[in-house]
Amino acid sequence: MSNATAYPHLLAPLELGHVTLKNRVLMGSMHVGLEDQKGPLKKLAAYFARRAEGDVGLIVTGGIAPNREGWTKPFAGKLSNRVEVWQHRYVTDAVHEAGGRIAMQILHAGRYAYHPLAVAPSPLKSPISLFRPRALSRRGVGRTIQAFATCARRAQEAGYDGVEIMGSEGYLINQFIAARTNKRTDEWGGDYEHRIRFPLAVVRAVRDAVGPDFIIIYRLSMLDLMEGGSSWDEVVTLGKRVEEAGASILNTGIGWHEARVPTIATMVPPAAFTWVTGRLKGEVSLPLVTSNRINMPDVAERVLASGDADMISMARPFLADPDWVLKAKQDRVDEINTCIACNQACLDHIFRNRRCSCLVNPLACHETEWKIYPVTRRRDVAVVGAGPAGLSCATLAASRGHRVTLYEAAPAIGGQFNMARRIPGKEEFDHTLRYFQRQLELTGVTVKLGHRVTPDELAAAGHELVVLATGVHPRRIELPGVDHEMVRTYVDVLQGDAPVGARVAIIGAGGIGFDVAEYLLHGTGHDAREDPERARDRFFADWGIDTTLARRGGLQPPRREPPAREITLCQRSAGKLGAGLGKTTGWIHRTALKRQGVVMLPECRYERIDDRGLHLTVGGAPQVLEVDNVILCAGQVPRRELHEPLRARGVEVHLIGGADVAAELDAKRAIAQGARVASEI
Ligand code: FAD
Ligand code: NAP
Ligand code: SF4
């Protein structure tokens, strides 16, 4: 093991017998939407090759079905015939040319399939698909095992270094293992011994098909987080039997997709589940891979050094930064563009059938279409506003060769991210600010903080073009009593530290209304961050995760404590509150607030605010919310007072982020728009 690095465990090679992996970093399987394209998989190839250039030890593709029944959705990626072998060759060749290694994940969706051909051990509909699966016949079970083996053989023909058999997350194999989804009475159902016949038959058939010199990773559901899931003893038994059946590596699966416990969202503490993998250490002799919410080298190194695992799997961090491993190797960790686990541009896109990208790296998954070229003519560019849009634009424009000055009225960079980072569970937004700070230094941007720039100054400075990234103002609403002393805006609370009483009404239930509620429920200690150990314990207790592993599925009743405040969240429209929040995270925010007693009121008509509180009608019925404070989170309007005066002086002006359009603005659009303008000027 090398001592010349701060990450000796992470960067140590891993011997697998016939092959040596160059480090302990596995790029975990993640569907990005490029797998399902027709013809040669050139875009997928470019995406993976870029990560291979960044020195990842082993890449695992997103799930590829072994047959049509196993598709996650109609015409999803599949590998079962020669034409598909040819399509995948582009991927393996590109990765190997870049010096990497790649395994293909074989995923059979079972009852999670979103199409009418779905099959499962038993005809039980899942809560996350509209389609009731057909029960596999006994011959059908045999054909499915054969399909896994054929798929693995085809993967080998296509040049992959191995396969990962997806045995977790509630997909087909997991459905055979769990009594709740396997009600069969033949040899493939019944007691645990019979229910695990299917995964073991799959592993054996795959090993027989590919021979000894081929990596087989088995993704083992170590913590189902489902009622009636496997007990820990059963998990250990299966791990041992999978090893005997011929697997080379065991990877960790945490939680079925239908589980109502967050496993990868921002509010899940870093490396929150690696102790589960650690419990399997010593029970099997295969290398163990651990995963979930590991996004920086120090966290990964700590996990490996503690002995919990032999390898770290990360998926989203490689969307955020393809050079993650290289930067760790070269002691450039402060240059890592860290995944902040927001899911906004990756999983939320996939769930809407859109191609993945990344909030902090909009170039991800667009490697063949969005190229950044050095400038042919250096220009003097002013960027006004150092929020996400301005930071993205200024750093990329400077990296292309422009001379860039960034003006910011506040004493620090970050814009609204300085409020977002105060929300419990969004602490990792700090990483994005750290990343941009370092990029400003590396690209030589001249930064003028505490400098509210005026049109005259900009015109006089002789900039050839000005990019306005001045963000937003909170929306003022027309309501009698809106100037009452009990009224606050979210900016007063999150930036101005305005005092807030014990009973609160929030007007507006968008992302910021939800965040303000979460902030107030944790007490307003402001930058006093919770101790990481306490945060982990609180997370496990709040979400009912049994860390003793004494109970099936790893679940226990969630803890209930009296909330710090009485909060009522109001919106004018009908329907559930927070409907516009991310598909993969909205339910988490709603569940967390409801558990803490937050009352959610749709169909509100606000009448007035006075000493008694907020007067309103709810679904037509009059009510008074007797509160200490009313907090306005009623959306935002663009801040662009510089725009017309600059245009009147003949200056070339571009608008980005909130300064351009405030409606439905988020950091994803702000950063992407900043990068787009920077790549075109
Ligand atoms: P801003 O971030 O508003 O930055 C504008 C900057 O311009 C400010 O720093 C301002 O001081 C500066 N400025 C204005 N006028 C001048 C001038 N004349 N001279 C110099 N400087 C000037 N988005 C997400 O995608 N995901 C989230 O989870 C999320 N959570 C959030 C939580 C909270 C509590 C808040 C408040 C916002 C959250 N957002 C989130 C929204 C996100 O922060 C914004 O969409 C994003 O910051 C908009 O970026 P921007 O660069 O357009 O504007
Ligand atoms: P928002 O999502 O547009 O929500 C604004 C809220 O104010 C809505 O509930 C709206 O609901 C209400 N509203 C609008 N006009 C009003 C008026 N005149 N009077 C009273 N109520 C009014 O905006 P936001 O919460 O300010 O968030 C800003 C952006 O930041 C969002 O686009 C969001 O994507 C982003 N953000 C994202 C996250 C995240 O976790 N992903 C978190 C925070 C912020 P009604 O019209 O029904 O009353
Ligand atoms: Fe990570 Fe968010 Fe990027 Fe997804 S979109 S990779 S969660 S930073």
Summarize the structure.
With 681 residues, the protein is an alpha/beta fold.
List the helices and strands and how they pair.
Elements lengths: L13 E2 L4 E2 L3 E3 L14 H12 L4 E7 L17 H16 L4 E5 L12 E2 L13 E2 L2 H20 L4 E6 L4 H6 L14 H4 L1 H14 L4 E9 L8 H14 L3 E6 L19 H7 L7 E3 L6 H9 L5 E4 L1 H5 L3 H6 L17 H4 L29 E5 L3 H13 L2 E5 L9 H4 L8 H15 L2 E3 L6 H6 L4 E4 L3 E3 L12 E3 H5 L8 E5 L3 H11 L10 H12 L22 E5 L15 H10 L3 E3 L2 E7 L2 E6 L2 E5 L3 E4 L3 E3 L4 H6 L3 E4 L11 H14 L1
Parallel strand pairs: 3-4, 3-12, 4-5, 5-8, 6-7, 8-9, 9-10, 10-11, 11-12, 13-14, 13-16, 14-15, 16-27, 18-25, 19-20, 19-25, 20-21
Antiparallel strand pairs: 1-2, 17-26, 22-23, 23-24
The chain binds flavin-adenine dinucleotide (FAD), NADP nicotinamide-adenine-dinucleotide phosphate and iron/sulfur cluster.
Q: How much helix is in the residues?
A: 25-40%
Number of domain modules: 3
CATH H-tier superfamily of the largest domain: Aldolase class I
Taking the alpha carbons of the first and last residues, their distance comes to 47 Å
The CATH topology of the largest domain is what? TIM Barrel
- Structure summary, number of beta strands: 27
In the CATH hierarchy, the architecture of the largest domain is Alpha-Beta Barrel
Give the overall silhouette: globular
**Spatial strand order of the main sheet:** 3-4-5-8-9-10-11-12
Structural class: alpha/beta
Average pLDDT value?
95
Rg (C-alpha, Å): 26 Å
Low-confidence stretches: none
How many helix segments? 22
Largest sheet: 8 strands, parallel, barrel
Strand content: 15-25%
Bound molecules: flavin-adenine dinucleotide, NADP nicotinamide-adenine-dinucleotide phosphate, iron/sulfur cluster
- CATH class type of the largest domain: Alpha Beta
